[in-house]
Batch of 2 targets.
Target 1
Amino acid sequence: MSATLTSTIVEPVSSLLLNGTTKKPEAEEEPYKYAHLMPVYSKDKYPPLEPFNHVDGGSRALTHTNPRSFLNNANVVELTPNFGSDVRGVNLAELTPDQKDELALEVARRGVVVFRDQMDFIDRGAAFYTEWGRHFGPLHIHPTSGHPEGFPYIHLVYKDANSRFNTEGLTTTVWHSDFSFELQPPGLTTFFLLSQPKSGGDTLYSSQVQNFRTLSPIMQDFLRTLKATHSGFDSLRSTKGGVVRRDPIETIHPVVRRHPVTGEEALYVNKQFTRKIVGMKKEESDGGLTSDDNIDLLLNFLYDHIAKSGDHQARIKWEPMSMVLWDNRVAAHSAISDYGHLKARRHGARITPQAERPIPALASMKMAD
Ligand SMILES: [Fe+2]
């Protein structure tokens, strides 16, 4: 039997097309373009975060003649009247330091902004991502998640056909502000996908400014006087890589914080990390109802308000090469894991600069050292 005949016989049936040509076998598919950004789970340990003096880039932009000049040639579509924008025509990778400050101000004002067609930025790699984030503040290292080899400051999310999806609950929605339990939680935050399913995995955002503004004046006055405990302990109970690189902490923050640049007041509680209103008695907090998780009645009301207020929400659909920037001080968000059955890869990177310790909306409120 000749070599030519043999090769014809062993051609996999699955690769034969009706017109007699062949398609590429699976094993010969293109190598994954972002393989160098696959997550690794280092066993490094990190000390507690150090306090620092935060100067917000957005405050520098307030003195610019036109603080929105970086959008001069852009097409900006408002996702809702009060919250969220969708921008085309800006290359984030080419922004000057002044324009980055303008970007910080714009995102503080709009809460969340998606920038489309950002392949230039995304293809520059992890060292560039790190440099980008440092313009806005010291970068937070995620205590448990994977990161690109050698770049611990870049938090990666990763799921593919072999990943397990939690389908036990009614929904995968978990509203939160990233790391609100830190003493100086994140401000301007950048996230983008390197690979994604053909649909699904959208991200929900909610305006905590609007969520606060729509409450009655008497409720606003009451909330301004309150503090709440935020805890990182629960979120570290189950970790994908089995690594906890920095010990969790619990921190008390004002329930209503003031943005250092816009001056706007925002609700600052979230179901994932906020645990208790400081100083409330049990009867006041659980209202006489049984409470499995000891979450305050008042907190439950606020969580419900955040979750149900569709008029303060925006939903980001992930076109390829999109980057989303949001201000964690004024926007809550939730991932949506609705794509498990697609058996597709979803690979994303987050750059997470820390900002100031939350400023109480009530100027006379004292926070312990
Ligand atoms: Fe998040």
Target 2
Amino acid sequence: MQRVIPRLGRNGPRRICAVSYHDMATSPGDQTDTRLADLSRYIYGTTRLGDDKIQFADRVKMAHAAMDAGVWFHTSHQYGDALKVLRAAFDADRKRVPRMIFKIGWSTIQELRQTIQQNIEPLGVDHMDIGQLCLGGKLAEEFASGGKCHDDFRKLREERLVHRFVLEVFPWTSRLPLAALRAGHTKGVIDGFIFYLNPLQRFASNELWDLLQERNEPIVAMRTVGGGDVHRLRDVPGAAWKDYLRQRAVEIAPLFERSGCKTWPEFCVRFVFGFPQVRTTVGATSRPENLRAFLDAVKTIKPLPSDIQSQIVSLQYRWSDQTDLHAEPWSM
Ligand SMILES: NC(=O)c1ccc[n+]([C@@H]2O[C@H](COP(=O)([O-])OP(=O)(O)OC[C@H]3O[C@@H](n4cnc5c(N)ncnc54)[C@H](OP(=O)(O)O)[C@@H]3O)[C@@H](O)[C@H]2O)c1
């Protein structure tokens, strides 16, 4: 069954590509570009494994449930004691260690090598399938101008310490990835871009977002459900960690209600996979039933009704101009 998916820009549809429902379910994205095409459609985000209010044994059980599902994991040594939980889960059966994306950074190549060790040693693994470059300071500037760090990244690949790289983007860091992409410096080094992308957040600036679409750059979408159920974010005081999220939930809830989607995860997954560049969505949970909801949502992915998809896209252009672009680093 064929359905025409408009590629949406600020002023509505820009280009048209045909994708079949079957393709959407199994391998969304440009069929000729294989970068990151091997990622599972859903990636288990491990932040909730670091929540010490939950019994350690229950968190290990949760990790095992995600391992049983055969999906990729996204993790970091910054997520409380999540790496300890993962180590316990992996040690029960080393043959089932999942493929993983790790956060690495920050301002120098020495620091970056250090963060690699801080992540792989506690897990007893010898490499990273994908390193998420969280660049700041000198290293970010060097990257944007095509400097020496590109050789350092290639070296890490040759050493088989990091097999592939994706570049992290925030609204307040979009300028440098944009410069790097424009100048062609990401070619051959970066396999894709990773940022918050869900109905409530699109953390690449409008300019960068347009260029990512134009260049057909693979995207790893983060925070599948934008932090939780949309009605809860809208209605329960304190559920949204910042008021801008509550305000966005007020605008998005009516679109969700009109969409015909049975669940919020279904709506979120159908929204992000409406962009052919999106390879996967990263969502966290500490509950087996919510893991099941994520897995169900990616089983068969149908596009959202096109008017709903384009209304969210328009909202995200407005939010980016009005709020994201002016946000202090780490304030949202
Ligand atoms: N800079 C970065 O690299 C960065 C930043 C943020 C996130 N991440 C990655 O992305 C992952 C996800 O981010 P996130 O945890 O911030 O956002 P998220 O996945 O959108 O939200 C997770 C929250 O939603 C709840 N939830 C899960 N499924 C649900 C459902 N079906 N219905 C209602 N609520 C549900 C979870 O609670 P329960 O535990 O109760 O299910 C949890 O509190 C992280 O684990 C991390 O791997 C990376």
